[in-house]
Amino acid sequence: MTFVQVSSALTIAAALFLGCSPAVAQPKSAQPDAGQSQPPRKPKSTGPEGASAVAKPKFSSDACTKDEECAPVATCHPDRCVGAAQAGKLPADTMCSMECRGGTVDCGFNHCACVASTAGKKLCALVPGPPHKR
Q1: How many whole angstroms separate alpha carbon 25 and alpha carbon 63?
Q2: Has residue 118 got a pLDDT over 70?
Q3: Is-contact 77 86, C-beta < 8 A?
Q4: Alpha carbon distances (Å) from 48 to 53, 70, 103
Q5: CB 62: neighbour CB atoms within 10 A?
Q6: Beta strands across the sheet bearing 122-128
Q7: What is the pTM of this model?
Q8: CA–CA gap between residue 54 and residue 87 (Å, rounded)
Q9: DSSP string, the chain
Q10: 12-46 pLDDT per residue, tens
Q11: Largest CA distance in the chain
Q12: Whether residue 133 has pLDDT greater than 60
């Protein structure tokens, strides 16, 4: 019995010494709202446009004839598309966050496609919405 009291006192003393309050140091399940269902959270849109999808195609200078020839640039949260041969690859040790960023190909906000530009030439572009299933 004495061992448990000393252990609790040491835990609290260690938490205070390290700058933590005992309430913060408690596991999440000990919080009052634990076990209550939470509504699902929608992904945050943190893109430069402030919206999930791009307003209009964002063209590259890479010519194409079909969608399969276009790919997102090899970066975390790619916000532009290029010819697949120019896309590159992420280094094997790269770690990207799992967030959904607006203005990127994240979470189906946008996708890469081969689109006719205003000059009539087909170019790879970042376009709004998820890719079309065929």
Answers
A1: 57
A2: yes
A3: no
A4: 11, 22, 7
A5: 20
A6: 58-63, 122-128, 110-116
A7: 0.60
A8: 20
A9: -HHHHHHHHHHHHHHHHTT--HHHHS-GGGSTTTTS--PPPPPP--STTSSSS-SS-EEEEEE-SSGGGEEE-SSSS---EEEGGGS----TT--------TTSSGGGSEEEEEEE-TTS-EEEEEEESSPPP-
A10: 444 444 444 444 444 444 444 445 444 444 444 44
A11: 83
A12: yes
| pLDDT for res 87 | 96
* Closest by Cα among 61, 62, 83, 63 to 72: 83
Give the integer Cα–Cα distance in Å for 44 and 81: 22
88 phi, psi to nearest 5 deg: 75, -170
Q: Which two tokens stand for residue 107?
A: 């979470």
pLDDT digits (tens, 9 = 90+) for 50-100: 468 999 999 999 999 999 999 999 999 999 999 999 999 999 999 999 999
How far apart are the C-alpha atoms of 79 and 95, rounded to whole Å? 17
Structure token digits, residue 31? 């919080």
Q: 62 and 86 in contact (C-beta within 8 Å)? A: yes
